[in-house]
Amino acid sequence: MTAPLCAQDYAEQARARLDPSIWAWLDSGGADEHTAHANLGAWPALRLRSRALRPLAGAHTRLTLNGRTLAHPILIAPTAWHGLVHPDGETATALAAAATGTPYVLSAQSGTAIETLAALPEPPHLWFQLYAQTRREDTLALASRALRAGARALVLTVDAPVNGVRNAEQRSGFSKPDTIRSVHLDGLSPPAARTAPPGGSPLFDSGLLDTAPTWDDVAWLRHRLPAGTPLWLKGILDPEDARLALAHGVDGLIVSNHGGRCLDTLPSTCEALPAIAQAVAGRIPMLVDGGIRRGTDILKALALGAQGVLIGRPALHALAVGGAPALAHLVQILRGELEVAMALTGCRTLADVDAGVLY
Predict the structure, then answer these.
(1) Catalytic residue among 82, 258, 317, 329
(2) CA angle 57-65-285, nearest 5°?
(3) Domain 7-49+67-173+212-357: which topology?
(4) d(Cα 210, Cα 27) in Å, to the nearest integer?
(5) Active site residue 258
(6) pLDDT per residue over 134-157, tens digit each?
């Protein structure tokens, strides 16, 4: 195989290497995958405005999030079970993140403990993903554990109180091997389910939604976290939810449709982003994920109001192909493509990127 030159090259090589059932788990979307495909198609459909003879001396991609200066606006999204695609699992991801100055949002369903990654000789800039647990005390305990280990932000994922309908994954026969487990969830109380009555709903009559998180849980968590802890919400796709997040003291939003893996026929994140940016009006930072495959996609996301982007599936594609070096290479590819796109649209810094770069 030739060396990958872009994110799509990594995807194609990963598919050739992985077991088909693992590929289906990794790359498929919910139901008929309309939203997953829309995520990929929406960014290229936007057109950029080329500008000539702009001053570019001193150009850079630096930005500030949570009071810290970052080298570039690319983050690694929280995705579960990296050990399914590479034997070094999340350790490889962390090494690549540290080498490239890329914040890594560690999944609550990681197969490697946050303490292990924080103890690496050169640890990455770690954030930690939370899912609200059945008991609020477990959610807080998980958050506290992450902060003790050095997590610099908490990311509460709010768009998946239940799993989506994942037909492609079901057809593949995917089953998580016993050697892979979500180590951060060990010892926490599982959802209390009951058997649905004959003819009853397997979801609505099972009790699984009785403890689904609400805005009250966000307020409860915000109040109990140590002062100054950055709390982000991931999975915001509606402007009214963005306004509610502001009212509840959230520090940042991640515009996301869960990679198109939950509710199918949602809008792409590219389509949803402008209205949410208008609702937020710059009061808190926003990130976006879903379908980011090129530096031009990153530039367009910034032009629509985001401060940065997260990559999920592409990170796993690169890991599957070549572990930490491959993922570091992918990040450098995307950063390089962003720099080229900035130069050719006349943007010296990220502060110069606005809606004016779009037709």
Answers:
(1) 258
(2) 105
(3) TIM Barrel (3.20.20)
(4) 31
(5) yes
(6) 999 999 999 999 999 999 999 999
